[in-house]
Write a structure and sequence with these properties.
The chain has 323 residues and is of the alpha/beta class. It has two domains: 2-116 and 291-321, Medium-chain alcohol dehydrogenases, catalytic domain (Quinone Oxidoreductase, Chain A, domain 1, Alpha-Beta Complex); 120-258, Quinone Oxidoreductase, Chain A, domain 1, CATH 3.90.180.10. The chain contains eleven helices and 16 strands. Strands 3, 5, 6, 7, 8, 15 and 16 form a seven-stranded mixed sheet that branches. Strands 11-10-9-12-13-14 form a six-stranded parallel sheet, sandwiched between helices. A three-stranded antiparallel sheet has the order 2-1-4, covered by helices on one side. The longest helix is centred in the middle third of the chain and has 14 residues, at 117-130. The chain is globular, with a radius of gyration of 19 Å.
């Protein structure tokens, strides 16, 4: 089968086409004939902890039709339309642990379904599992145009949460306002604190999603309300270290946590997927949340899709149509 591999060369990642065998399912696995997959920055970040080595078959999420199932799989059958987190989604066939495979809602296209699993499960973890976000609170999303950023805004709005987002592009903020962002702040610098406080009536925010990195960390911490929660999820600035005001963390009872799939066990991934299915998937299935796709590329244009991701040229997800 045709596939695209992520290969590290000279401290940069490139896409390399290869022919490989169709995967065969183990007892608790599902093989999917892929119709669409989506790009994720963490997977293509050169040298980062999320890349997974010098080369790997790319694609962490996909939609498609069940091709084969292992002997222990009961909840789906061959021919079912499905989506979920997978291994090797940048290929004509991908394999997944059975708990990660979900039946595709009828209202979603293949492309929309492929845009959901990683961004929305990650957003569920940040906002609900660890962030404990509640109706009536305020959420700040740094780098709000990313896949996880857009998913966070959409989930928060569906919950009745006030949303504030930052981006270096006013045009991106305008698009985000059309999907529910309440306040957009155009900046690429750690100078957003006063504007955030003003937009929130002089109060700190309850949850911050920092998808930009270390250069923004101190300012994110500064504008948290008492008992505020700060999620660390990305490094657009390529900065992995930051100063931390321990006195503020101590006195204001702040919580800081990271969200990454890099070291999750299969059981932990299954638990997160179950939480997403319970709390978020119904909002997608009934149309309260519509996945945001910036653009769709054909399978043979995978390098162009990666270039779009590298340039941060999107609002929402970059999807690749495969089958």
């Amino acid at each position: 089968m045709k596939s695209w591999w992520i290969v590290t060369k000279d401290h940069k990642t490139v896409m390399e086409a290869r022919e490989i065998p169709v995967p065969q399912p183990k007892p608790n696995e599902v093989v999917i004939k892929v119709h669409a997959s989506a790009m994720n920055r963490g997977e293509i970040f050169a040298g980062g902890v999320m890349h997974g080595g010098p080369e790997k078959l790319g694609g962490g999420e996909a939609s498609g039709v069940v091709h084969a199932i292992g002997s222990e799989v009961k909840h789906v059958k061959v021919g079912d339309a499905v989506f979920g987190r997978v291994r090797g989604g940048f290929a004509e066939y991908a394999v997944s642990d059975a708990p990660q495979v979900l039946k595709k809602p009828d209202n979603l296209s293949w492309e929309q379904a492929a845009a959901v699993p990683i961004s929305f499960v990650t957003a569920w973890e940040m906002l609900l599992l660890y962030g404990k976000l509640k109706k009536g609170e305020t959420l700040l999303v740094m780098g709000a145009s990313s896949g996880a950023g857009v998913a966070s805004i959409q989930i928060a709005k569906a919950m009745g949460v006030r949303t504030i987002g930052t981006s270096g592009s006013q045009a991106k903020l305008d698009k985000l306002k059309a999907i529910g962002l309440d306040v957009g702040i155009a900046t690429r610098k750690p100078d957003f604190g006063d504007a955030v406080m003003k937009a929130n009536g002089g109060k700190g925010v309850d949850v911050v999603v920092n998808g930009v990195g270390g250069t923004m960390f101190a300012e994110c911490l500064r504008i948290l309300a008492d008992h505020g929660r700060l999620a660390v999820v990305g490094y657009l600035d390529n900065t992995f270290k930051a100063e931390i005001d321990l006195n503020a963390v101590h006195a204001r009872r702040l919580e800081i946590f990271g969200v990454s799939n890099a070291h999750l066990t299969a059981a932990e991934k299954a638990a997160s997927t179950a939480g997403f299915v319970r709390d978020v998937l119904p909002m997608i299935a009934d149309g309260r949340i519509v996945p945001v796709i910036d653009r769709v590329y054909p399978f043979d244009e995978m390098p162009a899709a990666k270039a779009c991701m590298d340039d941060s040229a999107m609002v929402g997800k970059v999807v690749v149509k495969i089958g």
